[in-house]
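We give the chain.
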Amino acid sequence: MPPPAEPGMIDPAEAAHFGRQAEQWWDPKGSSAMLHRLNPVRLGFIRAAADAHWGCNSAGFRPLAGRRALDMGCGAGLLAEPLARMGADVTGVDAAPENVAAARAHAATGGFAIDYRAGSTGAIAGERFDLVCSLEVIEHVVDQPGFVGALADALAPGGLMILSTPNRTPLTRLALVGAAEVTGLIPRGTHDWHRFLTPDELTGMVEAAGLTVTGTRGLGLSPTRGFALSDSLALDYFLTATRG
């Protein structure tokens, strides 16, 4: 039986669920296939948000050079490594030690000097980051307001926070908890629909933590283009916030 969850942490049972998939994280046809399909859109959104926030040259290859970036809930590094390629000094934190081990091993093969840590928000207590990312993570967290508050505490003045999560709608109940798990696109037991947050709920948590929400953007699934940015927030969405 897993130990009780600490406030703000990912449910230990869910951490164990993802840890069992550690060896397949980098297999685009494995249990993390959906994340591989999501990653190009996620990276494009982060790049555009960073360019807009810091006035970066959109044609540059290392827009995050000289900045610290946090990937909270990093898995085996699907986001952390591209952030490092963009020039960031990256810290990746994950609740599953198996994922951290897989992330370190993969980073070593590519020569990435990423600071991977096993744990949750306590692993970065007292530290500050220019960019704080936590994508498709908060829906697995027990104390969601506490989690958001800890991420906000980690955001440096003038920094940028980017969160993404499924919306709690009939569509996600059908598509993410129903059809996707039935067809095997997402491993069974990955999602608890009741933990999904609406944009208004997540906005309230972020604002209560002292940040300013600067926008939300939908992530949709097109039959012809696959995952793509969307005006609809019904399936999944990004939220950006700043600290003045």
